[in-house]
Design goal:
heterotrimer; A alpha/beta (494); B mainly alpha (95); C alpha+beta (482); A: 494 residues; alpha/beta; Amidase signature (AS) enzymes; eleven-stranded mixed β-sheet; 16 helices; 38% helix; globular; B: 95 residues; mainly alpha; 3 helices; 6% strand
Chain lengths: 494, 95, 482
């Protein structure tokens, strides 16, 4: 098997067994990036030289028998995580030359555990988008193709670069961030596994904020086990993030393959929403059958406020982003467009620095917080958010985990759904509710649809019960036996 | 609720985002589209519901009053587009 | 008689509320670990959190919370066990994140009260609306470059307490008394140094005017006034301006104004079309702050005696007049000094010496009590010499001046200068005989009924004995002979 097809778990074993070196493993990926990134545009910045140096170092560590869980494993890092001395852009013109003098906690944790970073992956600008088409560095192409059709498809978003890189073998795993579905939806579109942990599980320190009360980092990889391995490193309490939760990080890998006998799986009626494609509905039914076969008890539940999740999200997230992005003012960092007065400088800088979607969300957020509208929009949305969370809390008194589709459709083509912002927002209809409630959720690929594109199912768990997600996810993964690979991939390129 | 061009201009001004007059119709249409769509929340009865603050998983922690940071002017100024000596700069502000 | 201003149309009353920004005494900033100390090279007391770098997050300083609670307790105010931090959004060059973290809807301290005392002895109570914590901004410098302003973020993120009064203040004098009292309380508590020159305490002054019995009229806010004197001036100037506007048939606009002491006027700070809309909302990077009553109780037990309590105790314990007690508790250090002098001695006499001669000397030399040339022990030593009749009051004045100059102890000075009081009746009798002999005519007059000449004889005897005679013995001796 090609080195770019291995799982992290197998690669880590292979490195320890000296079947191949870390330099070989990393070079296979940097070569694949060199070959495919010009087309996929999955990386904004590649760090191949530094990665190979780090790989050589990893080989020394391995030789000494001091390997850490991720020693020598090539990972992609979403370009929203600040990396010390490595340009971090948030896919925005306003940060196109920003070089942080600090490391985010999540990436520092991965480095501590030996990971090798091969580059910074593309995303929607400031993580605002569902198709990775708002990046100032150009769109990402989904490595998957519809049967008999070479049209460039979107990888989903906002972590589209991470999803495409992992799917195509340009990284063994990648970090993502998820605000309303930005890990799970691209994972589903690209046929990989993506896990959004409980809000507070991974530190937000050093990760560029979009909507602070929703943003959460998580792993994206080609297997459930790989996600468990990555999360093990990424998660943990951080005193520098006041919303980080101080509770123990369990052994996530131990949950893989755990018996599901007696596990109660909730099927929320409200996810049978309009616009759910027949192929996704079929995949969902298949997933239910597999879990039943694995010993789960299937329970119908109701999350009545789910349908308001998206509208709530499009008030809360823009409101927070309008404030979070005020710091990009051309003064202390980032690009600046001069003007005769302070305000002229601000206005020119922010007009040139932000793309249309970011500007739209900032303005939307500014409006919903402005005098006279706060109560009608923001306060109301935060109240509905309480109801959404209450729905989940009540459901989790009856069931252990929820199973839903990840997205209403498989990946669509670049250029589709771009006329109307609201149509684009509907891609996140199934992922947003768990984000609003802070619950952990994971997307697992379970098969291919009618046009040959991957389909994902979403598991939503109780707060800090990522283990049940991993256990149920690994059961779905085994049952599905999903071994399909995209048309554009490192191995295929050789 | 529907935004008129004057309101769009006012929001842009509050957000310090420069806009041209020619941007206004499109922006107005998009923002009104989104606002019209979120109107669906009016259906929800939130009588007596407390707004969500935080996600309820933790209480606010505090740190000890110890100087652990600062004295890093090089880092502070490392990305400044127009630093002069030890200072950031902006176009002259007249009060 | 209450304070009023006369206009063309009649008598006006002024209504004032103060928002005082008091910088919290702490080592590090409210939400970052950078130093909160004053001064420092530009942009050195700055962390990446203070500079608002991407991904940087606030973490609350425990001591700043404690200081805010102590202050609330000192203002006899309600402590809110749950409070929140909101973002106040606006763009400015010295505001790195584009928002100030402040407590808008749920402050940590609620209603309280401050007792003030006016020159005529009137006591008034000024209501406190609230106290909340917030971040200070950085500093813009406009005079360093022809086209640019320079930004220093050393102050950005330092903890402030905003203390908001009710509109209970009715005169410049009351405003001055309120600020002095507030500063006194903060200094006693050790929560703010109250140094207005360094900007660690500054006031926004809300002023309106009205005719007697009217509801409140529109107010203006005068921003950032940095001395008590200026606050008092600004109120008068602004009230006069508003009266003119009203009397000329105009409307006072609710606006922010600046006081210009050099021109003794206030002027509008921002044009109306640029009106702020701060878009407050709960800071999603911070959760609600919940404090335990047990901790509040512990902080309360650790509070020092507050100035009002100390004043009342001084009146009771030392039997001194209220005015003297108020003067003596003005500063903790003065009160401590006084108590050390008064301990085991004549407390009234001690109060007279401290508030009279000592304060006079300190004023003359421009010193504070901390660097008084005469220590409390030294002054006490002098009082002891008076008590045991080694020196009399007149000689004490001379000894005190010498102490000021030389720093010697009273005993040493008395010894050196031979100022010990003469109690030898033989010597006094001789001096009495001598004085009477030389003033036979006056002795006649005295005996003829001119009683007040007795004082003349005492003075002459004292003079003859270089002031060192014990006045009581002199009196005795004179009475006997006359």
């Amino acid at each position: 098997m090609s080195l770019t097809e291995l799982t992290i778990a197998d690669a880590a074993a292979g490195l320890r067994a000296r079947k191949f070196s870390a330099v070989e493993l990393v070079r296979a990926h940097t070569d694949a990036i060199a070959a495919l990134n010009p087309r996929l545009n999955a990386y904004i910045t590649t760090t191949s030289d530094a990665a190979l140096t780090a790989a050589a170092h990893a080989d020394e560590t391995l030789a000494k028998g001091e390997a850490r869980p991720l020693t020598g494993i090539p990972l992609g890092i979403k370009d929203l995580f600040c990396t010390n001395g490595v340009r971090t852009t948030a896919a925005s013109n306003i940060l196109k030359n920003f070089v942080p003098p600090y490391e985010s906690t999540v990436t520092a944790n991965l480095l501590r555990d030996g990971a090798v970073f091969v580059g910074k992956t593309n995303l929607d600008e400031f993580a605002m988008g569902s198709a990775n088409i708002t990046s100032a560095f150009g769109p990402v192409e989904n490595p998957w193709k519809r049967n008999g059709d070479d049209a460039a498809l979107v990888p989903g978003g906002s972590s589209g670069g991470s999803a495409a890189a992992v799917a195509a073998g340009l990284a063994m795993g990648a970090t993502g961030t998820d605000t309303g579905g930005s890990i799970r939806q691209p994972a589903a579109y690209c046929g990989i596994v993506g896990l959004k942990p409980t809000y507070g599980r991974c530190s937000r320190f050093g990760t560029i904020a979009y909507a602070s009360s929703l943003d959460q980092a998580g792993p994206m990889a080609r297997s459930v086990r790989d996600c468990a391995i990555m999360l093990q490193s990424m998660a943990g309490f951080d005193a520098r993030d006041s919303t980080s939760v101080n509770c123990d990080v369990p052994d996530y890998s131990a949950a893989i393959g755990r018996s599901l006998k007696g596990l109660k799986v909730g099927i929320p009626a409200e996810y049978r929403a309009e616009g759910l494609s027949a192929e996704i509905e079929a995949a969902w039914q298949q997933g239910i059958a597999w879990l039943k076969a694995a010993g789960c008890e299937i329970v119908d539940v109701s999350l009545p406020h789910t349908k308001y999740g998206l509208a709530t999200y499009y008030i809360v997230a823009p409101a927070e982003c309008s404030s979070n992005l005020a710091r990009y003012d051309g003064l202390r960092f980032g690009e600046r467009v001069e003007g005769p007065t302070l305000d002229a400088m601000y206005e020119a800088t922010r007009r040139a620095g932000f793309g249309p979607e970011v500007r739209r969300r900032i303005m939307m957020g500014t409006y919903v917080l402005s005098a006279g509208y706060y109560d009608a929009y923001y306060l109301k949305a935060q109240k509905v958010r309480s109801l959404i969370r209450r729905d989940f809390t009540e459901s989790f008194q009856k069931v252990d985990v929820l199973l839903t589709p990840t997205a209403p459709t498989p990946a669509f083509a670049q250029g589709e759904k771009t006329d109307d912002p609201v149509q684009m927002y509907l891609n996140d209809i199934f992922t947003v509710p768990a984000s609003m409630a802070g619950m952990p959720a994971m997307s697992v690929p379970v098969g291919l649809g009618a046009t040959g594109l991957p389909l994902g199912l979403q598991l939503i768990g109780r707060p800090f019960d990522e283990e049940t997600l991993l256990a149920a996810g690994s059961a779905l993964e085994s049952a599905a036996g999903f071994t399909h690979r995209p048309a554009i991939r490192a191995e295929g390129a050789k | 609720m529907s935004l008129d061009p004057a309101t769009v201009r006012r929001i842009a001004r509050l957000a310090r985002i420069g806009i041209d007059e020619s941007d206004l119709p499109a922006l107005q249409g998009e923002l009104n589209g989104i606002l019209g769509w979120v109107e669906q929340l009016n259906e929800v009865d939130v009588e007596g519901v407390t707004p969500m603050v935080g996600t309820g998983h933790a209480a606010l922690r505090t740190r000890d009053d110890v100087v652990t940071d600062g004295n890093c002017r090089d880092a502070v100024l490392s990305n400044a587009p127009d630093a002069v000596g030890p200072f950031y700069t902006v176009p002259k502000v007249v009060e | 008689m209450s304070y009023t201003l006369e206009g063309k149309t009649g008598t006006w009353e002024i209504v004032v509320g103060l928002e005082v920004h008091a910088q919290v005494i702490s080592h590090s900033k409210l939400f970052s670990g950078a130093s909160a100390s004053y001064g420092g090279e530009p942009n050195t007391h700055v962390s990446l959190v203070d500079a608002g770098f991407p991904g940087m997050l606030p973490v609350l300083n425990h001591e700043c919370v404690a200081q805010a609670i102590r202050t609330g307790l000192g203002l006899r105010a309600r402590i809110n066990l749950e409070s929140r931090f909101d973002r106040k959004n606006y763009f400015y060059a010295d505001l790195p994140t584009g928002y100030q973290i402040s407590q808008f809807t749920h402050p940590i301290v609620g209603e309280g009260t401050v007792e003030i005392e006016l020159g005529d002895g009137t006591v008034r109570h000024i209501g406190i609306t609230r106290l909340h914590m917030e971040q200070d901004a950085g500093k813009s410098m406009h005079d360093q470059d022809p086209t640019r302003s320079f930004i220093d973020l050393n102050r950005a993120g330092v903890a402030l307490m905003e203390i908001v009064s009710e509109p209970d203040i009715r005169s410049p004098e009351e405003a001055g008394a309120y600020l002095r009292k507030l500063r006194q309380i903060l200094r006693y508590l050790g929560t703010c140094d109250g140094n207005m020159e360094e900007g660690s305490m500054r006031a926004d002054v809300n002023v309106s005017v009205r005719k007697a019995g009217e509801p409140f009229r529109t107010r203006c806010e005068i921003k950032n006034v940095n001395s008590i004197r200026y606050v008092m001036h600004a109120i008068e100037v602004e009230a006069t301006r508003q009266i003119e506007v009203w009397e000329d048939g105009g409307e006072v606009d609710q606006e922010t104004r600046l006081f210009d002491p050099s021109r003794n006027e206030t002027r509008s700070l921002r044009s109306k079309e640029d009106a702020h809309d701060y878009r407050y909302f709960p800071d999603p990077d911070l959760l609600p702050l919940v404090v335990e009553q047990a901790w509040v109780d512990e902080l309360e037990r650790g509070l020092p005696e507050l100035p009002d309590d100390k004043r009342d105790r001084f009146i009771k314990q030392y039997g001194i007049p209220r005015y003297d007690a108020s003067v003596l508790v003005a500063e903790q250090a003065i009160a401590d000094y006084y108590e050390e002098v008064a301990k085991g001695r004549d407390a009234r006499l001690a109060a007279n010496w401290v508030t009279g001669d000592l304060f006079g000397a300190l004023n003359r030399t421009g010193r504070g009590i901390q660097d008084s040339p005469i220590s409390a022990q030294a002054l006490g030593g002098m009082l002891d010499l008076m008590a045991d009749k080694t020196i009399n009051g007149k000689i004490a004045k001379e000894v005190f001046e010498d102490m000021l100059e030389t720093g010697d102890s009273a005993a040493d000075i008395v010894e050196r200068k031979g100022l010990k009081q003469v109690t030898d009746t033989g010597a006094i009798d001789a001096a009495v005989a001598d004085v009477l002999a030389r003033n036979a005519d006056k002795v006649e007059e005295y005996r003829g009924g001119k009683d007040r000449l007795f004082g003349f004889f005492v003075g002459q005897v004292m003079k003859a004995m270089a002031g060192k005679a014990n006045p009581a013995i002199v009196n005795e001796a004179l009475k006997k002979v006359l």
